[in-house]
Please model this.
Amino acid sequence: MERFTGRTLAVATIHGKERVIGPALVAALPLAGWEAIAGVDTDRFGAFSGEVQRTLSPLEAAIAKARHGAEVSGADLVIASEGSFGPYPPAPFLSCNEEFLVLLDMRDGQVFSHRKVFLGPVFGGERCTSRAEVLAFAERMRFPSHQLVVRRDEHWRAGDQVFKGIDDADGLRTVTEELIVAYGSCWVETDLRAMANPTRMQAIADTAAELSAEIARTCPACGTCWFRVTDTRTGLPCGLCGWPTASIRAHIRSCSGCGHMQQEPRSDGRTEEDPRYCDHCNP
Ligand SMILES: [Zn+2]
Ligand SMILES: [Zn+2]
Model:
C-alpha cells in the first residue's frame, strides 16, 4: 500500500467517468487525491457510435488509454476504463456489459486490472421504419434518462451523419422522421457513453469499487497489495439434489509477489445453486 501513499491519481477518461472512478480509488487507497487528465482523447481507441472501430481487446484498449493518459499529462499513476457490450457467455440469449479498469503505475510499469460483468445496464439497437417503432424502442431503452444515437443504418459508413446524445422527444422526432422520409428507415440505439447511460455509469462505479477493494487486499504471507482473485472453482451444489453445478463455488486468490494462494468461499455467501441451473434436476 506504500506504493500509493500521498500520490495523485490521474483519470484518463472522458464522458464523466472520472466522477465515479476517482472517488472510489481515493476512498480505498492512501492517495492524496485524484484529477481528470485534460485533453485526453480516448475515443481514438474506439467509439461505440461506430465511427472508430476498436481493434484492440478491451483490456488492451484500457492499457493503451492509460499509457496515452500518462504521455499527455506526465502523470505517473493513471487509471483508464473500457467497456464492451454483447452476449452473456453463460446464457447467450441474455446480453451483458463487461467493464474493464486498468491502473498503471509508470514508476515500475505495474498494471492493476479488473473486469466485471453486468446484466443491468440498459442497451440495444433497432431498425425503425415508423414513429411508433421509434417511440416503443425509446421507451424500452428508458429514454430520455438513457440517451439515444440515431443514424441512417446499423453500420456506419463514411459520410453518414451520427446524431449522439439525443435526450429530448422533439430532437428524437426530428432526426428519425427526416431519415425515415429520406431512406425509409433509420437505426436507433442507446448512447453507450457513460454520461449518457446512467445504468452503465453505475456499472463503472461498481467496477471501480471492486478494483480498489482488490488492490487494498494484502497478501497474508508477504504483505504485497493486490492479493486478488485469479481463478475460480465451479461445482456450487444444487439446492435440491446436491449435484455439483457449473456455477462458481469458490474463488482462488494469489499473490504476484510471493506466489501464495488461498481459497475462499463466494463473496455473496451463496452455498447452493437454484435447481433451474442443475443439469441433474433440469437437464
Ligand atoms: Zn439438482
Ligand atoms: Zn505474497
Notes: Residues 238, 240-241, 243, 275, 278, 280-281 surround zinc ion (ligand 1) (CB under 6 Å). The mean pLDDT is 93. The chain has five helices and twelve strands. The first strand starts at residue 8 and ends at 11.
